Amino acid sequence: MSQRARPLSPHLQVYKPQITTVMSILHRISGIALSFGAFALAWWLLAVAQGGDAYASAAECLASPFGKLVLFGFSLALAYHLLNGIRHLLWDAGWGFKLPQVYRSGYAVAVLTLVFTAAIWWLASRGGA
């Protein structure tokens, strides 16, 4: 029995990533980051509930440079996942399937993610007031 030659899928070295591919991968990564962030939030809430030394230790950890980096990453993932999720809801409603709209909404999500994250950190640095 002869076997027909089938076309091979393009290798990652020759495939040019598109914004839709990158946004999809980042959406999955941000979802995973938010899952880990939920555990960190639970840890912080348990420290608040215990009070005293436990809360002081948690607050000190979050105020460290590494803690601030983790919080920044969490806020970035939260903003991105929220905005890209809204984009997907609009797609589910049948809006934005034309290629120019897909690219425009993708770039809008990227820019708004940076704006929202900056706004979160700006408000946090002012003490929320």
Shape: elongated
- State the helix count: 4
Order of helices and strands: HHHH
Query: Span between N and C termini?
Result: 76 Å
Tell me the CATH topology: 3 helical TM bundles of succinate and fumarate reductases
What fraction of the residues are assigned to beta strands by DSSP?
under 5%
Fraction of residues in H or I helices: over 70%
Mean pLDDT: 92
Largest sheet: none
> What is Rg?
21 Å
The tally of structural domains comes to 1
What is the element layout, followed by pairings?
Elements: H1 19-50, H2 52-63, H3 65-92, H4 99-125
Structural commentary:
The chain has 129 residues and is an all-alpha fold. The protein has a single domain, classed as Up-down Bundle (3 helical TM bundles of succinate and fumarate reductases), CATH 1.20.1300.10. It is 77% helix and 0% strand. The chain has four helices and no strands. α1 packs antiparallel against α2 (52-63), α1 crosses α3 (65-92) and α3 (65-92) packs antiparallel against α4.
